[in-house]
Structure formats: structure tokens, C-alpha cells
């Protein structure tokens, strides 16, 4: 839960953790500049929680962050960190923060990073705050995470190209997008690409039913439209064996030939689109305001046009479902085809 | 005000009016497909209200709209229409709709188009519905209009290039973006480009004060940063004479040399980004749902993640202000520089 | 060999065959418009040689091609065609051309298409001409093929995004690009992405040596640079089992962990870049000039800034090697790392 | 003229001068890495010739240039320099080079920069070499200059967006592109955008004739096509008063309404496309080879696929004309409309 401490922080630390997401640099920039604006010093730990444990850091000032708003990746680097899961690792991290007189720690990352940060409260007495940065948009308590909008556009641009070939050859393509355990990317990308079929966690029951469903739809469309392109967008980690297996099963069980494409890592990088730059700027500045107001153990979220804070632990407690209204519209449109 | 009529429409008409906006085609597609899904026939009038008066139309079916979700412009063409401002023009339009047995008219456009549509109720007894499509985002009752997200990205991508030259030469650039009488484009583009200065309707008092403000900030920054690039983003229709005059005045009154750039019409076209495709799909399908529910004289809006309807007349009654929190953050960041 | 016939063609046919390539539409447009300019009628067969055999065609005139210069894919669709490999298929195709009074056949495609077209001379007495369209650039007799420039940019843009993640995590990525049996894409993409290592047909000896080579380079670089990102770009169809197997072998034999990415079909589609639009326009117009001059059985090529014609059969006779000077530079730069 | 000196340079200097061009950073990188590969030290002067006179420089090594191949602008900054036109300025520059033991100076820039470098031979005894970097492609002795390909694509992407609006409104747009005193950008951009009319230095006689020519073509097209979009692409510095004046004159003298757009500075920046990255890498490495071979007073050029050297003075002596064959094709296509 958030609470109020008495005094303004003098020095804070930032780090980026987990999968990189476009806009993390914009969040580093905004947090840094806004803190400086309020007379707070800022340092950045490198390589996620590893840097916290091994005391790798750099000072963050205006020249360092001046030109990074539009760059993908993260100037602080990122990493997964097994050591931070152990009490010894957390203690070492807390000791380093204390030695550097760090009054608050801001972590830009996803749910794994926030689970770690929540536990770290037992070792570190300073303020902690999370800024949600992940392309998967799978963090509860915020409409959007930093990086999601860019990843959607990246995937859509890629699939628009695949559609050209699908149209030219009048063939079926099956494209697997990222998203870890959630369907935000698949649903949004699929709608924006006018996918004839979207497979996401919310509408998937089991492999056999899905196979049958796809097959009957394709046969129906071939009758009504004649030969034409057909695009299936699928979330990863859903159909056992992924897109390649699904394509193989469609061939075996329904004599349907489709070309599987796994979009892969292109979805994680790239210059952030305007929306992610603005969201990151908004969240970074808002995070500093919360520190100034004495809040701790919170995550910054966006609700419509407004930033808010939620208890950090709540952000990882519930599965966030995709927009039900959009999903229903997609299924209605699919029925028509 | 919205109300309920008794029966479902059998045939509806669409048109696009006013300045074109990326995503209009996606809205045409979604409205058409969703209507077809419910057994409603769809036709499209061409050239905005002109087509309504001169009876230029085409049937809209699945093959016509199949590949347009990602195309800029509008397959129905657009235009301004003086004739529609006269009772004679409106009567002719209503007669044409009646002759074609059109139960409802859906207009995708901006505030001028909606003012016309509101008046048209006196002549046309069918249902009317507006879908907000304009890059300016200056329609009240909706967080976003179709086309705004794309226009922001287009302007940001253009200014990112200008920044390269500004950095290489360490010079001052003054970029004027569109927006008609509102500052949404200027504020969002400016934040995303890390503009050192943004001039928008909400923070502009008068030319003299603005000149002095810019000059003092530039002199301060030159002292603190040394020579460096400096970017001013300005809304159009604000400083008298526009960017060229402002650049000239900065030279005359403050001996500050800056290069004016008017981004112009590139902001209106282009393939819609994913967000505009999704928003247009959402709004188009939602509009058909409202027609089915018997609503009329409403505009579709988006509030956070959810579509809603508002009385059509209310959408053009009030000036919609930019996000005050974002503006305040921008001004704090500017102060720091 | 090319020769002169006596009279100007009255009616010609176009088709696109083999893998689609960005710029095919621009070639269709230019050939059509230039032919029309000289009073020649134009029709387009659909689905490659299949349309020729099954008599599927459409008239090509100015409105049909007006807006296609910048569209990926091909409005004439494409396909592979087994039937065209048989004498019966070829005879049917020739009969259809005769029945339609087609004086010349222009085929936009790759080497498989040109081998077919060369054989087709035995059945068809009209003029034949090939325009090289393939992203692989593996056609002899021309510096560049239509689609190559776009595919290089597409792959480079994708890998730039992957580099962001590689930099953020300081990890090794292994990206497989297309190219069929040639290394043009791999070399050009690798240089443009500043790949630390490029595996192409010209520098590959055998899997064991390649493995050893990569491993020793990576170990050397880790010593000199410390932890950093490292990018390997590989041609497809080269290392047995492709990028996934190579990654697995690097783990097994050298304990090097790298992430394999297969870019796949995104490289085939997309709006053509300016260079491909201009090349296609140049070649299309030049092809018509050759027809007017009575040439037949030739392929259009580009040599520096100038179009030329080469005997069609020669275009598929020799393996075209990548630019040796660029390859040598790349290897020198790699040595330095 | 080029000649041979006896020994290999030990230390060289780079600078970028004149208008920035995408790919300058790639040229800095390649020259630096290739020199390092041969055991040569490299420094970079900042702000063009100004840095040479005022002794502003930085060491260039592998970490400095590691990530710059894809960045627009120039890490060495650029500038025009009046001081370098005076003997005193040149002498000071030469003294600085001598004091730093610089054996060779490599200048990446355009014709103004090369005229300066040619004169500088009287003051500086070391080797000099020019690498052509300008978006205008107006340097003789090379098919292409670094930055040209990117600028063409940037302008084409911008105009594709304008075409959307032109199509939606069926209106005439007049777009002015850069190019200084040459028509390479106008011709290549115009062809790639399927411009209905291109105004370039090679086909322009005088304002009155041009006006009449445009007007009669537009009237003819309106008759044949009906209302439709119409795009004129014009080189800058050609019609007196530029696009705005031409639009005004078309209105006054021919009652033709068209919308003028000046693309402006977006054409100078942006991440370089693959072609410019490869060209810059090729030229940078080749420049070092020429230094090693003892050549001096030369410019690097590209002829088809191969780099070559030409006497530096010759590169600025003659006006380079656009590809006559492309221009003729464009005019034939225009006649058809």
C-alpha cells in the first residue's frame, strides 16, 4: 500500500528490467528530467537488478538523456536476474542503495520485475515505484503499458507486407505474434490487419476444437469468396507447438495448406511511436510527483487520459483480459466472412 | 437527442466529408461489414454531401471494402459542400435519400460536417449518426478522433528528421503543425519530439509576450547548454502570419535566427496506424449497433477503452481543451532546460 | 538470341510469375502505359502461367494501372505452375495467345519463369521478353532485379529493431534472411546492419569450419569489447537445418548461446521503395521499346544507369556472384572487431 | 591530380562539411574502422572546417562509431565556414593539422566543401580526399552521392501521403523538392510518385512557357480523365518565387487552383536507407585504400557497382545532368495522360 513519508527524496535510482520495450528510454528521460526539475539527483543502475547487486551504475543528467526520447532499447541495458530472487541478492542490493544514499528506487519493467520489487520492500526501507514497460500489455491496473503501441504497429506493418504476398498468391498465412500469456497483441494486431481469424487466450478452448473451427471457416469462405488470401493471427504460447505445429496439423487433419510465420524479436525493438513516447513521458513525470508526495510501493498506470497509482502488488495479482467489446466485434466480423 | 425507433433499418448510406483523415476507409469497412452482418444493405455517397445532392453513389459490399483497412484517404472521396448549407440543397439530398429508401445516414467527418448533419434533421426523417474522423482531434465528446494518432506519428517522424539536421548544425527550427483551431497536434507532437518549446492555444497569450518568452528561453539555454539544437513546435492559426512571420519577428526583435518549416499536407494522408484502424473498426461497428437500437442524431465517441454515443449537437458546442496534465508536465520540463 | 521482326505489335500480354516482388505493379503500370503511348493494346493474364493456360485475363488500361506504382504484391496475382512445364500446357497457352491475337508476351518474374519462357518459344511464334522481378537479385545480366532494393530495406529495418534488443541485453542474435541460392540479400543486409558476421554462399566452406570460425570470433570479441551485442546475418539454404540448427550447434559445440530469428515472408511484400519503382518504370518502358524494335527472346537488364537487353537464356545460365569488393571490405571490417 | 606518396599515413583526420546527408555517419564509421584495421589512428574535427580552424576535435575509435551506421545527421556536426575561404583561415587549419601530425584529411561533403579542399592543397602538404555526401546528387564523377537515396525515399513517402489527400479531394497539388541547382531529386521523386508533371532544370525553358504547358496539360487531362488528382513535382530554385508563386500564377493566368507544398528540411535528415549505408561503407573503406596507395587530391565515386577515384577538382567543374533516358520516358508517359 502507498503511504506518506515526511521528506522529499534527495537522490533516486532508476533501472530497466525484463524484456526491453520501446519507450523505456523515454521513461528514463522523463523521470530523470522531472526529478532534476525538483532538485533530485538521479542515477541509473545497469542490466536490471544485476546492476543493483553488482553496483554498476551511471549518473543520469540532462545531456545523457537529451537525445533518447525516440530510441528503442534502453540505455541502462536490461537483463533477467536470478540472483535477485534470493535473500542474499536482495540484501546486497539494499546495501548498495544504502551506501549510495538512494532514497527511492524506480523500476521500469514488467510483472516479473514488479514481483521482485514488491519482495524487495523487506530489505529496502526507501520508496519504491514501478513504471509498466512491456510490449505484452499484460499488467493489471493500467490501460496500456509502455511499448505496447509500438509493438502493435511493428507487427501490423510486418503483416501488411505478408498480406501482399498472401493476396498475390491467394494463400493462407498463419502469423504468430508475441504476448507471453496474454492476447493483447494478437487481438489488436489481428483487428488492425483485418485478419480473417484471430486466436487468443480469451477465445481458445482446446486444440481440437480450434482446428475444426479454422477448417470449417476456411471451407466456408472458399465457397463464398472463391480463392483468396486468408490471414490467421495467433497469440504465442497457446496452441501446443505454436504456429508451425498448427500449420502442420491443419495440413494433416483438414488438408489445408497454410504458411506459418513467427514474427519474433522484431516486435520488441524499434523507435517508439508517438503514443509510447508520450505515455512514457507522462508516467515518468507522474512517478516523480508520487515520490514527492511520499508514496511508495505503487505502480503508475494510465486510465483513459489520466495517470494514477495503484498498489504495486495488485498489478500482478489478476489476469488482465482484453477488451471484450473489441473481441466481440471481431468475432461478429469473422462470422460474416 | 437520441431516441428509439421501432424497426431495424433495411438500407443505410455512408459518406465521408470534410478534410480526409487516415482511418476513414477503415470506418467505411467496419460500418459496411457490420451492417451486412445484420442483414442491412449499404451504399456510399461520393464526394461528401455533394454526392448526396447530385445522387452519386456506389453499392458497398464485402469485396469493395475487403482490402481498404490500411489505406489512407477515402474510397468515397471527400469534399466541402456549399450547396448543402442551403435549404434547397438539403431538400434535394433528403429527396434522394427517400427515393433510394435509405433508412439511416452515417457521416464520417469533422465538426463542420456534423453541424450540417444536425441541421439536416429538419429535412430527413431517417436516423442520422456521426463518426468523428479528423486529424485535428477537435471534437468534443470523444477522447480521440479517427486520424489523429496517424497524424501525430506522421508529424513526429517528419520532425525526427528535422532534428537530425538541427543537431548537425546546432540550430533552431520552428515547425508549424496542423490542428485548425486546436492544439492537440502541437502538444502531442511537441512532447513526442522532445520539443524545447511548444506553442499551443492553451498557453498562448499574445504575439509580443510569446516573442519575449521564446527569446528569453533561448538565451538562457545557450548559456546553460552552449550551442545546441533547439526545436519549437507551433500550432497553426495562432501566431499572426504563422511560422514564417514568427521566424522573421524573432530575427528582427531578438536577433535570433531560426528556420521555419510548415509541415503541411503530409499530415492528412498516409496509411493509418494500428490505433486508427482499431478505433475506426470499433466506432463503425458500434455505430451500427446504435442504429439497430433505434438511436438517431448521435455521434459515436470513445471514452478510454469504451465506445459511447453523445448527442450530435453537443459534439460541436464546446471547445475541447488539450490534456491539462500533459501540458503542465511539458511546461515543467521546459522550465528545466 | 534477339532478332528483328517486321511490324509493330498491335496487342501484347503481361503476366507476373514466381515469387512476388515489390515493384511488380510498377512494372505492369509502366509497360502498360508505354505500350498504350505507342498505340498498342495490353491485356494481363492472371496467376502467372496458369492464367495463360486457363485463359484468365483482364484488359489493362490507364485507369486500371493509375494508382498501383506504390503497391506491393501484383494486381495480376502470381503462382507457380506445374502444367506449364509440359508440352500440352505450353501448347494450350500458345493456342490461347493466338486466339487473342497477342503479338508479344512480357513476363515479369525470376529465373524459373524465364526458363519456362525460353522453352515456350518452341510453341509461340510471337515476341517474348522477360523483366527481372525477384527479391533475390539472382538473375545474371542485370545489376539489380525489381524488388531487391525493397527487400534489403525491409530486412534492414527489421534487424535494426532486433539490434535494439540485442544491445539492451548484450546478446548474440542470428538472423536468417531470404535469397534462395544466392547471397545478395545476406551480404547487403549484413553490411547495412553492421553485422559482426555474415554467412553467405561466397564465404561458406562447410558447417564445421563455419561453426569454429564463428566461435573463435565471438570469443575474441568478448575479450576485446567485453559483453556486447553481436549480430550474425546468414543466407537461407546454406547451413544445414538453417538458423535454428546453427544456433543449436553453437550451443552444443561451443557453449555459445544465440537467439535465432528467421525473418521470413515479410521480405517479399511491402510498398516498393523509390528505387524499385524507378527501376520498374525504366525497365517496363524499355521493354516496350525493344518490342517496337522487333527484339524477341530477350531479358531487360540494368547496367549502372542504363537499361540493356540480354538473351533470355543467358540470364539463367550462370550463377551471379555478389560484389567481391563489398565482400572483401566486410571481411576486413569483421577482422577488426 | 592524384599521385603516389612514399609512406602509409599514421594518423588521419575526418570532417563533415556543408549540408548534412543521411549516411555521413556510416561514412565516418567505415573510414574510421578501415583505417584502424590498417593501424592508422583517426581523429574527427567538429563543425566542418570551423573545427579545423579552431582545433575542435575528438578521437574516433571503435566504440565511438559502433552504433552509428543507421543514424541520420553527423556525430561530427556540420557547418558552413566563411573563415575557411580566407588564406588566414586556411593557414590556421594547416598549422593545426601539422601540430597534430595529421598525414591526411578526409572531407565528407558536397561541392562547396570540395572547392575549399582543392584550394587547401596550397597550405597543407598532406594527402586530401573527398567523399561525396549530399542529398542533391549534384557532384560529377560519381553515379550517386551519399544521402541521395534516402532523400528520394523520404520525399516519396511524404508525397505518397499528399497523394492520398489529392485523390480524396480530386485536386491538384504542386510539391517543391530540394536539389539546389540540380534536378536529380525532382526527377527521381516525380517518377517514383507517378507525378503527372515534373519540372526540372533539364526541361524548363521559361516561366511563361511552363505556365502555358502546365495549363494546357491539365485542361487536356480533365477532358480525358474527368476530375481526378494531379501531382506536379518541381525542383526548387527554378520557377521564380518557387511553388507558392507558381500556384499563384496558375490561379491568375489559367484559373487553375492548386495547392503548393514545400517539403523542406525533412529531406535532409532521417536514418539512412540501406543503399546509403552500403554506399557510405564502400566509399569510406575505398578512401582508406586510396590513402594507403598514396593517392591525394581525389574524390571517391561510384560507377555502377565499383568505387573509383577522380581528381577532386573535376568533381565540381561540370554540371551533372540527370539520366536522359529516364527523363525521356517520363515525358513520354506524361504525354499519354
Automatic annotation (TrEMBL), chains A, B, C, D:
Its EC number is 2.7.1.11. It catalyses: beta-D-fructose 6-phosphate + ATP = beta-D-fructose 1,6-bisphosphate + ADP + H(+). SUPFAM superfamilies: Phosphofructokinase. Residues 11-290 form the Phosphofructokinase domain. Pathway: Carbohydrate degradation; glycolysis; D-glyceraldehyde 3-phosphate and glycerone phosphate from D-glucose: step 3/4. Transmembrane segments: none annotated. Its main location: cytoplasm. GO terms for molecular function: 6-phosphofructokinase activity; AMP binding; ATP binding; fructose-6-phosphate binding; identical protein binding; metal ion binding; monosaccharide binding. GO terms for cellular component: 6-phosphofructokinase complex. Its cofactor is Mg(2+). Belongs to the phosphofructokinase type A (PFKA) family. This is 6-phosphofructokinase. It comes from Thalassotalea mangrovi.
Amino acid at each position: 500500500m502507498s503511504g506518506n513519508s515526511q521528506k522529499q527524496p534527495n537522490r533516486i535510482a532508476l533501472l530497466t528490467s525484463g524484456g526491453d520495450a520501446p519507450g523505456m528510454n523515454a521513461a528514463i528521460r522523463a523521470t530523470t528530467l522531472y526529478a532534476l526539475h525538483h532538485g533530485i539527483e538521479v542515477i541509473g543502475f545497469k542490466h536490471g537488478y544485476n546492476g543493483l547487486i553488482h553496483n554498476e551504475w551511471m549518473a543520469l543528467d540532462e545531456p545523457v538523456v537529451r537525445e533518447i526520447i525516440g530510441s528503442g532499447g534502453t540505455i541502462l541495458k536490461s537483463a533477467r536476474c536470478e540472483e535477485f530472487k534470493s535473500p542474499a541478492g536482495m540484501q546486497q542490493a539494499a546495501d548498495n542503495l544504502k551506501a549510495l544514499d538512494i532514497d527511492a528506487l524506480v523500476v521500469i519493467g514488467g510483472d516479473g520485475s514488479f514481483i521482485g520489487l514488491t519482495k524487495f520492500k523487506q530489505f529496502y526501507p526507501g520508496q519504491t515505484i514501478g513504471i509498466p514497460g512491456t510490449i505484452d500489455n499484460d499488467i493489471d491496473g493500467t490501460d496500456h503499458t509502455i511499448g505496447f503501441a509500438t509493438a502493435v504497429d511493428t507487427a501490423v506493418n510486418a503483416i501488411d507486407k505478408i498480406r501482399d504476398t498472401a493476396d498475390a498468391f491467394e494463400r493462407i498465412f498463419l502469423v504468430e505474434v508475441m504476448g507471453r500469456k496474454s492476447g493483447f497483441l494478437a487481438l489488436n494486431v489481428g483487428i488492425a490487419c483485418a485478419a480473417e481469424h484471430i486466436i487468443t487466450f480469451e477465445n481458445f478452448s482446446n486444440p481440437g476444437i480450434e482446428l475444426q473451427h479454422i477448417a470449417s471457416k476456411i471451407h466456408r469462405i472458399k465457397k463464398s469468396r472463391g480463392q483468396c488470401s486468408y490471414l490467421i493471427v495467433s497469440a504465442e504460447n497457446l496452441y501446443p507447438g505454436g504456429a508451425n505445429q498448427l500449420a502442420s496439423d491443419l495440413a494433416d487433419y483438414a488438408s489445408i495448406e497454410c504458411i506459418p510465420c513467427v514474427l519474433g524479436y522484431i516486435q520488441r525493438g524499434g523507435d517508439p511511436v508517438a503514443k509510447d513516447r508520450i505515455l512514457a513521458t507522462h508516467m515518468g513525470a507522474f512517478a516523480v510527483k508520487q515520490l514527492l508526495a511520499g508514496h511508495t510501493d505503487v505502480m503508475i498506470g494510465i486510465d483513459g487520459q489520466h495517470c494514477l497509482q495503484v498498489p504495486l502488488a495488485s498489478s500482478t495479482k489478476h489476469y488482465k483480459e482484453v477488451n471484450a467489446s473489441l473481441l466481440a466485434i471481431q468475432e461478429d466480423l469473422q462470422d460474416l466472412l
